[in-house]
Design brief:
Elements: E1 21-26, H1 31-38, E2 41-43, H2 67-81, H3 87-100, H4 106-123, E3 124-130, H5 136-142, E4 149-154, H6 155-162, E5 165-167, E6 169-171, H7 185-193, E7 195-197, E8 205-211, H8 218-221, E9 222-224, E10 230-235, H9 241-254, E11 259-262
Parallel strand pairs: 6-7, 10-11
Antiparallel strand pairs: 1-4, 2-9, 3-8, 4-10, 5-8
Length: about 270
């Protein structure tokens, strides 16, 4: 049996087309939201905390593997675990494990997939952003009914600091994820992180992610940014005078001289 021919293409952040500015809607009444200015932080949240419980909740579907795919998986596993095996030994390993492995036990596979998602949540961090600063639904939902604020970040500086990002695609059905070598790791990551159901399309989300090899602590998820990552602060049209003054003072102290403007006056 021929092994799958996998081709991986690499690129750099400078070669990727990106929006000039990405935005984050925030509520000044929320002490944690304030830290986005006062501590010059972003927070890489675990998907477990998301309102959309399907977001990133897309396990690797061992239960959907065909017999041929199971054989491919164990052939690939043998080459990784047993680099000194002969071709015949790799084939024997793959045949035996294809027959005897618990991958054939639906109960075990379900428990394994559930556990893998929980572990994934502990290691993954997501920062949800958008290209659109002028979205009424977002001002309503995430900026306290237009009484909050919206931070504009210089995208290339932000993404170089965090590791990159991209737009979310909104679909009727979330794409399936299969293990390597049936599906490349890059495609699996894309399927899990950058697809959401269409009912969330109003967010027009552009997101970035970070993965830790160990369960991430709260402190690790709090990523401090350089001043150069900040482009502007947009204030909600219904923001109170007290909040406006506090945001201006906090921005001057933590970030410095950047544009602070009401939504109605932002171009």
């Amino acid at each position: 049996m021929d092994e799958p021919n996998i081709k991986v293409t690499y690129t750099t952040l400078d070669q990727v087309e990106l929006p000039e500015i990405v935005f984050k809607y925030r509520n000044w009444a929320d002490q944690f939201n304030k830290r986005f200015i006062t501590e010059r932080e972003v927070f890489m949240a675990s998907p477990e905390t998301f309102e959309d419980k399907l977001d990133c909740n897309n396990p690797t579907r061992f239960d959907k593997l065909t017999k041929d795919e199971i054989y491919q998986y164990f052939m690939w596993s043998s080459k990784d675990m047993n680099p000194n095996f002969t071709r015949q030994q790799h084939r024997h390993f793959a045949r035996e494990w294809s027959k005897e492995s618990l991958v054939n036990d639906p109960k075990y596979v379900k428990e394994f997939m559930d556990k893998s998602i929980i572990e994934y949540y502990e290691h993954e961090g997501i920062l949800s952003l958008t290209e659109n600063w002028n979205n009424d639904d977002m001002w309503d939902k995430y900026a306290a009914n237009h009484t909050g604020f919206c931070i504009g970040y210089n995208t290339r500086i932000l993404f170089k600091f965090l590791g990159g990002g991209g737009p979310v695609d909104y679909v009727d059905e979330l794409p399936m994820i299969k293990p390597e070598p049936i599906m490349q790791a890059e495609e699996a990551m894309r399927n899990r992180v950058y697809y959401k159901k269409k009912n969330w399309s109003f967010e027009e989300e552009y997101r970035t992610k970070k993965f830790w090899p160990h369960p991430a602590t709260i402190e690790e998820r709090q990523i401090k940014l350089p001043i150069e990552a900040y482009n502007c602060i947009i204030l909600g049209n219904n923001i109170s005078d007290d909040y406006e003054n506090e945001i201006i003072e906090a921005t001057n102290n933590a970030i410095g001289n950047i544009l602070i403007v009401k939504r109605k006056d932002y171009k």
